Amino acid sequence: MDTHLIGARRACSASIRVCSVRISRTGGVAGLFRNFSIGVIACAGLSACADSQFSDNGFKSLAPVSTGSTTAAGGKEWSGRSGASGHPAMTADAVRTAAADFPSCIARLEPAAARRGISQQDFVRFTSGLTPDLRLMDLMDAQPEFTKAFWDYLDTLVTEARIRRGREMLARYDRDFDAVERSYGVDRHVLAAIWGVETNFGSQGGDRPVLRSTATLACVGRRQAYFREEFLSALEIVSRGDVNPDHFKGSWAGAFGPTQFMPTTFKRHAVDFDGDGRRDIVDSIPDVLASMANKLRADGWIAGAPWGYEVSVPRGFDYLKAGRSHQMTLAQWSQLGVRRADGGPLPSGGDTAYLMVPAGAKGPAFLMFQNFRAIMRYNPSEAYALAIGHLADRMRGGGPFVRPWPRQERVLSRNERLELQRHLASRGHDIGEADGRLGPASRHAIMKFQAAQGLPPDGFATASLLDRLRAN
Ligand code: CA
C-alpha cells in the first residue's frame, strides 16, 4: 500500500476492519466532524485498527469516532496538557520547549527549501510571521473513548442530502466529469462520492492555514520528520503559485482543498486539467476532479470494473474464508454458494475479490474488487471505502443494501474491548497485546470462542459476545 506510515500505525489485517481514525478533519464529512477530532480508532466489530493512518493521502480517517470525550479538542487554545500518547515529544514541557525554538526550527529548514528551488525571498515571504498553533498537539493526541458502529459511519456518510447534492454536482459539472472520465477511466460517481464525503463538495475543507499547521507539526510534537516533508512541500506549492496562498487552508494536519490532499499527495498526483498552467486543486473544479481521478488511476483503478457489491452467503458458510487475505475468483465464490444480494448469480470472469462481512454473520456481506482497494488508498478504512462505493451507487440510482445491519448490536467501548481481551486470554487464547484494539489475533481468538460456543465464527465482537464470555 502506498502509504506513508509515520509511526505507530499498526497493521489491521482483519478482514473486517472498521477502522478509522480520523485524524481529523477540520471540516470534512458534512461538517459533522468539524473540529472533531482525531486519532481515534473506531473499530466496530471485528476489527481493530490502528491508531492512526497516515496514509498516502494524509492524516485521514474515517469519521467521527467519538461521541463524547473529545472535549480536549473543543476549545481554541492549547490545553497545556501532556498528550495522551505518552510520547516524550508530546509532554507539556517538551511542547513548550519546542514552541520556544519554533523560529529557529523554521530557519533551519531554509537550506532544504532552497534545494527545492524555493527562493530566499519566497521563504521569507511565506514563513515570516508564522507562529506555532499548539492546539494541534491536543488534536494529534486526542483519544476518544467511544467508537461508532460500522453502520453508524455509513449512515453518517451516505445520506439522502448528499446523494441529492451529488446528483446536482454531476449535472452542473457534467462536461468536466465527461472529460475527466474520458481521460482517466475513473467512474464519475466515485469521484463525486469522494468529493462529497471529503468536504461536502468543497464547502468544508477546513480553515486552518496549511503552512502554519505543517510548520507547527514539523517543529513540535511526535511526527516532526513526516511533517517537515509536508511543510516543505506546502512551501513548494505556494511558491510555484499553484494554489492561491489565501485559499491554502485545510484540516489540522494539512489536508487541504476539496480533495483533502496532503501537500505530498498534491506533489504526486495533482494535475492541471484546465490548462492554465497551475495545478489548482482548491479553486479549479476540473483540476480537482482530474487530480482525484489521477490518484485513483495511479492506485490501480480499473476502468469499467465494479468496486464491489453486496452478496448473500449460504447458511452454514465458513466465515474463515472472509477477509482481505482470501482473494478468490468469482467462479470460486459461486461454488461456495455466494450470490448477488438480489439472488442472482455472480457474473463470470473478471478480477478476483474478497468477501467482507463488516458486521458479522448477521449483517450484509460484500465482494470487494481491485477498485475497492484503490479507494482504500485514498483513506485506508473499509468503512470509508464502502461508504464511497455505496454513495456512488446511490448517486447512480441504486438502492440501499438489501440486508439490514444488526443495529441491535452495541459496539464495545475501549474498556469493554480490553475486558473482552482479558476474558479470551484467561481462557488460554492468544490475543496478541491486550490493548483494546481487536486486531487479527484477537479476532482469531473470538472466532475460536464462537466456534466452541456453536456460533458462526465471524469474529465480530459485540456486547452480547462479551456477556457470553462474562457468564462462562
Ligand atoms: Ca489548472
Summarize the structure.
The protein is mainly α and 472 residues long. The protein has a four-stranded antiparallel beta sheet. The chain has a domain at 414-452 and 461-471.
What this model shows, in words?
With 472 residues, the protein is mainly alpha-helical. It has 19 helices and eight strands. The strands form three sheets. It has a four-stranded antiparallel β-sheet with strand order 6-5-8-7. A two-stranded antiparallel sheet has the order 1-2. Strands 3-4 form a two-stranded antiparallel ribbon. Calcium ion binds next to loops.
What percent of the residues sit in helical stretches (DSSP H or I)? 40-55%
**DSSP summary: helix tally:** 19
Structural class: mainly alpha
What is the typical, i.e. mean, pLDDT?
A: 84
Number of strands: 8
What is the radius of gyration computed over CA atoms, rounded to a whole number of angstroms?
Answer: 22 Å
Provide the fold topology:
Blueprint: E1 53-55, E2 58-60, H1 92-100, H2 102-108, H3 110-115, H4 120-127, H5 135-141, H6 150-157, H7 160-172, H8 174-184, H9 188-199, E3 208-209, H10 210-219, H11 224-240, E4 249-250, H12 263-269, H13 285-298, E5 308-312, H14 330-335, E6 339-340, E7 354-356, E8 365-368, H15 370-376, H16 382-395, H17 414-426, H18 440-452, H19 463-471
Antiparallel strand pairs: 1-2, 3-4, 5-6, 5-8, 7-8
Helix pairs in contact: 6-16, 7-9, 7-16, 8-13, 9-16, 10-11, 11-12, 15-16, 17-19
The structure holds calcium ion.
Keywords for this entry:
472 residues, mainly alpha, four-stranded antiparallel sheet, two-stranded antiparallel sheet, 19 helices, 8 strands, 40% helix, globular, disordered N terminus, binds calcium ion
